[in-house]
Amino acid sequence: xxILVSNIELVLDAxxxxxxxxxxxxxxxxxxxVDIVEKQLCIFxxxxxxxxxxxxxxxxGCVVPYLDDVLLLAMENGFYSINVETExxxxxxxxxxxxxxxxxxxxxxxxxxxxxxxxxxTYGINAAGSLYxxxxxxxxxxxxxxxxxxxxxAWSPDHTYLYYIDTPTKKVxxxxxxxxxxxxxxxxDVIIFPENDGLPDGMTIDEEGCLWxxxxxxxxxxxxxxxxxxxxxxxxxPALYVTSCTFGGPNLTDLYVTTARTRMTxxxxxxxxxxxxxxxxxxNVKGCPTHSFCNNNIxxxxx
Length: 303
Known about the structure:
4-stranded antiparallel sheet, 2% helix, globular, gluconolactonase activity, calcium ion binding, 6-blade_b-propeller_TolB-like
């Protein structure tokens, strides 16, 4: 398929310090995202062009849909739920209470509705982080150890592979994935990031099984074939630090891109005045949907 992209549009000039973790609510046509540094959960409506900001008391790494008015978050101190109507935050579990310098970073739900999210320490280079999975029964399981900066995660459309980024390694690792058990095994490097092109950050996947990866410090989104390791598309983004992306819109063909303005010099901010904004790219390929957390036996009142 010949992939076409057009109309790279700034849809929200948020000037976020560190916009991250975008996820799409297909039913409500809403984009959830977080500003990690500013401790904000944000809900953007493309339909009404409004962005609701919920201020919280600790840094948020990522957000995933759960119930109509309940989302799950991975934060500094573990997994939480939040009722967006009351803004009540409820703690679920902290797998790292002894690691004071660690916080949760990127994460998503798998096709079975488990919430996977990983941690990083302050510097993101000391292999002090891990990748965890919050199972449907609310039990937390460590999946990968000795992680520097846990970042992009995605599942193949046929649900047989998990793709994972530990940013400083400059590569994408593929695991064999069992959707029934959540077990991952046989890691192998499938994409090696080029030098002087930024670092791999967040990512998403389309229905053709190709990965779309954000370049931290590289001002772009790239599309890759993980079967061959080949980069097949590069899209410039008018921001130095491109953090993540997700497919949304009525047909899941709009790629929403988050960016940051933290650590930028005055000259860099002049060059990229819309850094920290949310961008949208129209494509002709359909993305895989954002999966919601699934817990059939426990109601929202328990979270």
